[in-house]
Every structure is written in C-alpha cells, then in structure tokens.
Structure to design on (756 residues):
DNA sequence: AATGAATGAGCTTTCATTCAT
DNA sequence: AATGAATGAAAGCTCATTCAT
C-alpha cells in the first residue's frame, strides 16, 4: 500500500502538480479512505520527499557507475550520460517532472539536501568535461562550467518535449545531441 | 493600479508560485484591500493569462525582428536569438519563470493559445536552422527538429542557473553557447 | 461581530471547554459561516488569548485600586479584595472559569505573560498581608506566603460552587470568609 | 498491562489533558500498539472513569476513617483532614489534577455518580464542622456550609501551587492552614 | 494477548470570490 | 475606485474505534 500510494502520488503530482493534488485525489484512485494515507505517511510533504530522494539517488548512482568506468574514454562517458538521461524519461519521466517542478515544496531542511545532490549531479558532468579537456579529448578554450550547463540544459529540457513513443527513439536523440555537442552544427568543408 | 497588480503578481508568482500566492498577498504589498483586485481583474487566472500573453507576445515580436532582418546570416540570427534569451533574464527573468512554470494553471482555452505561441517560438528557431542548412551555413546530416530542441534546451535551462549579477555576463554566455553549438567541444586535429 | 464572537466563545469555552468547542459551534450561534471567524481572528487561540488578557488585566486593575487606597486599613483592603473576587463571579464568572481552566492552551509566549500577571495578583495580596503584619493588623507568626495561598484558595474555589442566584449573596459570603480568616472558627473562652 | 495503561494515562492526562492525550500517546510509552488498548478498555472514557472512581473512593475511605475515629476531637479531625489532603498531593497529585480538571469528559451517567461522591466528601467535612459546633469546639455564629467551602478551597487550591519538593513540607502547610482557620490571622493583644 | 490495517467523522485553517456601500 | 464583511468549498490532518488475523 505504501508503494501504491507513492506510485499514485507520482502520477498525480506529475500531471496536476503537488499543490493541486489532494490526499483525497490520491486515495480515491486506490479505493481507500483518506485516513489510510496517514497510516503510511506523516504528511503530504513526506511522500514528496521520498519521491525526490529516490529519484536523485538512483540518478546519481547510475551516473557514478558511468563516470568510474575505467574502460571508457571521456567522450564515451559524456555520450552515455546523455543517453542515460534520455533513456530515463521512458521509465522515470514522471518522477523527473516531479523532481524539477515540485522541489520548492520541500521543507528547507530537505530542500537543502536535495539541492546538494542535484548540484553534485552537475559537478559530476563537469568533472567529465574537465578531465576530458586534460586528456585532450575536448577543446580547452571554453569554460567547463558553462559548457556543462549547456549540456545539462540540452538533456534536461527533453523532459518537456521528448515522447518515448514518438518517431525518434531515445538512442537516436542521444546520438544527435552527442554529435551536435562534439562536432558542432556548422557546415565544414 | 492594474499595472501595479500585475507587477506584484509576477514578483510573487515567480517567487512563491501561482497557487501559493493569494490575492491577499498581492494586495497587501500594494496597501489596498482584497476587494479592489476584482475591480481590475475578473479572476486570479486572468492576471496569469495577461502575464503569459504579454510575455510570449513580446518574445515572439523580438524574435521575428531578428529572423526577418535581411542583413544578417542565419548563423548570426542564431547567435542573436540565443543572446536575446539570455539577455532577457535580466529584465524578464521573473516573467519567464512564471511563463514556464505556471502555464498549467490556465484554463484550457487560453492554455491552447499560449501553447500554440510557444510552439511558434520553437518553429521560428527551427526555420532558421532549416534555412541555414539550405544556404550551406549549417551541416545537413542532423534533423533540424532535434537540433532545435537542443538549442532551446541550452538557452531556456539558463533560467534555472544564470544570475545576471554573476561573474560571467549574458554576452559571454551567449558567445560560449554559440561556439559550442557551431564548432562543437571536441578537440580538433 | 468581533465582540459577539468573543462573547460566544467565552460562553462555550466555559461550558464545554476550549478544545471541545469548535469554530463551527461558535459561529452557528451567531448564524454566520465558519469563514467569518477568520476575518476577525487569526486563530482559535487568538480569541482565547484576548479573553485571558482582558480578564487578568481588569482583575489586576481593580485590585491595584483597592491596594493603593490610602484611606483604608490593611484589614479593610483584604476584605475588599475577597469581596471583589466573589462579586466578580456574577459578571465575570464565565471568564474566570475559562481563565483558570484553559490557560494551558495558550502558546508558550503568551502563557508566560499571563502567568506573570497571575503571579502578580498573588503577590499583591501577599503585600497586603505583609504590610498588615508590619502595621500590627495581622499576627506575625504565620508565613505570609502560605497565608496568602490560603486566602487565594478560599476565594478562588468559590468559582466552583458559588451561585450568584443562590440563597446567600456575595456580600455575605465575603463577610463570612473575612471573619473566618481574621478571627478563626475556634470557639473562644 | 491494564494497570500500566492506567498509570500512563494518569501521567499524560495530568500533564497534557484528557482531550490532548491520544491513545497513541499512551501506548507509545508502553511500546505496544494502539489496538492493544481496546483489549483492556472499551473506550478512552472508560480509563478516565476508572481513574476517577479509584481516586474519589480512596479519598472517601481515608476520610471516613478519620471522621469515625472515636478517640479524636473534631478539631483534631479537621486538622487531619487538611493534612491528609496536602499529604495526598505527593503520591496522588496527578490523580487529583485529573480528577478536578477532566471530570466533565465523563458521560452523564458516570458524571452524576462521581459528583455525588464529590459532594459526599464535602458533606463529610461539613459534618465535622457541625458536630464540632454542637460540641462547643467551633464557634456557632458562622454558617457551616460556607465555612466548609472555605476550608475546602484552602486545601484543594494547594494542588495548583504546592510542590512536595519545595521548602515547606506538607505537615507544616497543614499546620499553618489549621492555625489560620482555628485562630484567625488577626493580631490579638 | 497483541498487531496492523483501515475507517469515518470531525477539526482548524485557507482562500477565491461576491456584493452592498 | 475602493472597502469591509461574508461565504462556501476544499484542504491537510488527527484520532477514537473496529476488526481480521
């Protein structure tokens, strides 16, 4: 039941928003009464918190695996990170939506922890960029900080438009983004 | 007064969210009573609607000016569009925040119109990309649709992190993003 | 209306208790809707607070007047204080009930202030006792502190049993209590 | 377990109030689950009822012993009754608090019985006063009824201020009260 | 003897909105 | 143009109680 409540919450938070979703809404779908909610969670915010932690922890985990793979180049790591993000939308799209949009409804204490982890995620990408520059895989005349924000924006924004069931699959989009990033879109002779 | 209400609404919607801002909150700052609100606006949603239309219309206007400038290349147009978006954050950052985040609180009728305009904005960029390809300014082996989403993501995401008062000014960020996009981040030869 | 809400609140808090009285209960009697309550008071606790302050302030005021009357002896002052307390029950009985019984529902901040004032009330009586001892009006071999608690108990307890419409009027009860206190109940010679 | 539940209930009812104490609160301390409560008691009110009966019955018992002691004078009986009350606070203080403050939460049926016993307690003291008057131990010009309320108030009020661990022990306070009552506080030549 | 899950009624509070003045 | 009073619907949350296991 606890799991079911969370599943429903994600669904509803993603579609209607945290504030716009009432406990009633969540429990109606599960065909139990409102009171039951409070048997499993102390408050509405606690569900949100659980969702946020689960999401960012999983994301960081899979990211760390990619980064610490000794067999891959930094270019390959970047490619994989982008693919992973796109690929996630299929299974985790709703969670991601909730994560980015409803973050501000957390209490300060949790908000800070979550934001730290979110920043860590960005730092990890930046590390790949920086190491890649050192190893001569990426050009060195662009500030890694801004470059990273660019990459992050490209990938994250896809949550607003990418449809897994659309004509172009995640693998393809990731490949295109990777090419854009690496080679640029300028026509070369 | 009507203008003042809107100004305050933008400020508060941006900082606290649409749902989280009460009419009382808005009018408190203006030192008038809640009732006054309804002399100028029919409902809370109407203010939001006005904000959304104003924002997207201005954005589209300035975008169209850039696109239809006969004197500039498509590469230059792209650069300018990116710069314009970054530059906007300084003066229009709050509006932008409200635009992206609170869109869903519009009634269906207005939501559709707004989304159409938002899509138009994307179409315009895509047009620049497509024409640039035709004219040989951009490479032709990448789908303009996805490329455009990439560009849009890069630029729009800056609303989440770009601080106008930060160390790197909007001109610089725009230049870096432009270089990334055009030339790629790969180390050459 | 604000006054009416308070009047009703006193009535209901006294008869059913603070916790047991719902905002609904209060407003039902006034034939207005629950929402109206919050137009006049920020919270349920605020009404209680107002009641408590009003009560203790009035009580202290009238007490100070008695104490600082230069024309009366300390014995007379003691008599008057006791009478005043008994007399109050008629007009302020409900307030007194609420005061003693519902004090603990105040937030800490207010509770402290109220308790300070309540202690001041006791201190004032003790002062009369002490000064009376110095002036030779009261015997000096009993600790004023405990004596004061005794007096206070006698008088305050009457809130639990004294009925203004009963056979013995407040003047009489005060006189009897005063005699008991001054002369004792022992049969002399 | 049944005893443990009652012990905890007294503690919590005294400190937080009957309404303010949840079954959960009680069982949390005992490290068992809420459901267990209903194995031992039919309802929350039943515990309160048990507390009330236990308290008043014990009190009446010890009072009757004092009253029917053939060896003591009525003055001595009065002294003992007062001492007994003060002395009780140490071991039974919490019970007393609950008794006086939470009485109103009983259902009518039980409330009536409890109030009858409470009145009996007062009647018993009044009997001592009346018999003492007849025997010439107490003055006869004060109505026994009011005198009794005075004595009761003095003694009962100590629940609000008397601290067993304070500087003056129960024996002393009882003695002082007794002296006040018997001899009065007026300075004699 | 004890648990865990669920219920349902009730509570305080918030707030967009209406409207007579 | 603005105020002040009132409404009513809904929200988050608490909790005594029930009951199958």
């Amino acid at each position: 039941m606890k799991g079911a409540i969370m599943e429903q919450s994600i669904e509803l938070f993603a579609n209607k928003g945290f504030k716009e979703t009432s406990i009633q809404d969540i429990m109606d779908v599960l065909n139990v009464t409102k009171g039951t909610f409070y048997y499993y969670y102390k408050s509405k915010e606690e569900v949100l918190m659980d969702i946020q932690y689960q999401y960012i922890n999983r994301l960081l985990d899979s990211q760390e695996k990619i980064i610490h793979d000794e067999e891959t180049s930094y270019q390959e790591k970047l490619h994989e990170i982008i693919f992973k993000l796109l690929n996630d939308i299929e299974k985790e799209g709703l969670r991601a939506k909730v994560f980015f949009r409803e973050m501000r409804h957390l209490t300060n204490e949790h908000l800070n922890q979550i934001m730290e982890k979110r920043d860590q995620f960005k730092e990890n990408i930046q590390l790949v960029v920086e190491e890649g520059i050192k190893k001569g895989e990426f050009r060195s005349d662009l500030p890694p900080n801004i470059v990273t924000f660019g990459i992050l924006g490209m990938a994250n924004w896809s949550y607003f438009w990418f449809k897994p069931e659309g004509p172009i699959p995640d693998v393809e989009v990731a490949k295109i983004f990777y090419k854009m990033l690496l080679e640029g879109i300028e026509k070369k002779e």
